[in-house]
Design goal:
Length: about 300
């Protein structure tokens, strides 16, 4: 049984974020966004950092309500200047267009001003949907994401850039995600001693990442997570790169999910260890046409 379950390379839980992090959050529903953003803002306020939020699809008051519902009254932080919630139009697009270099310089100055004012650090999060508008300079967003890495890597500062997977296509999500040193892990659908089931993205497409062991103790948790994934659009992708053990009960959960899918949809298990791929083949359950299993490449 697996004793330690590591996150994907470059993936961090929001509560583990610290100075130097510039992470990408791809999300596919409002609740995912709310949970991560609220935790990030609250942690910053509790650590005595200056916290700035650039809203776009959400109204600033909605973001403040997230904090209130979570038990944090933002009033004092707003009054003192520790917390600022503004809009993309008043930040990224304050000049009427997007100037990547000017925005990098602005953030660098915000970090310096925050530290000079005695805050323990600076953290910022922005909704990036504004880039989908017909805005001059929006085509430089990828360049900006790459340039701004140094602002956070060199300072007591952190950032989360938010990309709504319902608005950005898979290719754009993948490209923007690659510009960041890492990503924010979503709240797991299941987290136990030997297994974590985490909504994620693979090549910009929504996926279910399986970390640890699936056996008769945890097969029902996998089945439940797969039922949730059935509600996602398109094919279901199961990222098995961190799957260490899969028994017949787990294989059965995969096959039964594939059998339920309507015509044209597939359950794609990717990056599976070759030995586990062989087990599925021996059992004969890879003959289900809606189940597509791809083994990872291993060194000779």
């Amino acid at each position: 049984m697996a004793e330690v379950m590591e996150q994907a390379v470059g993936e961090r839980q929001v509560h583990d974020m610290d100075h130097g992090d510039h992470l990408c959050l791809a999300f596919a529903d409002d609740e995912e966004q709310r949970r991560v953003v609220t935790a990030y803002l609250r942690d910053g306020l509790q650590r005595g950092e200056r916290v700035v939020y650039f809203a776009d699809q959400c109204a600033p008051e909605q973001v403040l309500d997230w904090l209130r519902v979570a038990g944090t009254d933002p009033g004092t932080a707003l009054d003192s200047g520790q917390l600022q919630v503004t809009t993309a139009d008043d930040s990224y697009l304050a000049a009427g267009s997007f100037d990547a270099d000017a925005m990098v310089a602005t953030l660098r100055q915000e970090v310096a001003d925050s530290l000079a004012a005695g805050y323990s650090g600076f953290r910022v999060s922005g909704e990036m949907g504004w880039a989908l508008r017909d805005v001059p300079g929006a085509e430089r967003l990828g360049e900006y994401e790459r340039k701004v890495n140094a602002v956070f890597a060199e300072n007591r500062a952190s950032a989360i850039c938010q990309y709504d997977a319902r608005r950005f296509d898979a290719a754009a999500l993948h490209a923007f995600g690659q510009k960041h040193p890492g990503t924010v892990e979503a709240v797991p659908l299941y987290s136990g001693a030997t297994l974590r089931l985490v909504p994620s993205f693979h090549d910009g497409r929504r996926s279910l990442r399986v970390v640890g062991d699936v056996d008769y103790h945890t097969a029902e948790a996998l089945a439940s997570a797969l039922r949730t994934a059935e509600g996602w659009p398109g094919d279901i992708t199961v990222d098995a790169g961190a799957l260490q053990f899969l028994d017949l009960a787990g294989i059965r959960a995969l096959v039964r999910t594939a059998e339920r899918l309507p015509e044209g949809r597939r359950l794609r298990v990717i990056d599976l260890h070759p030995m586990l791929r062989h087990v599925i083949s021996v059992v004969g359950w890879d003959r289900e046409p809606a189940l597509v299993v791809t083994a990872r490449e291993t060194a000779e």
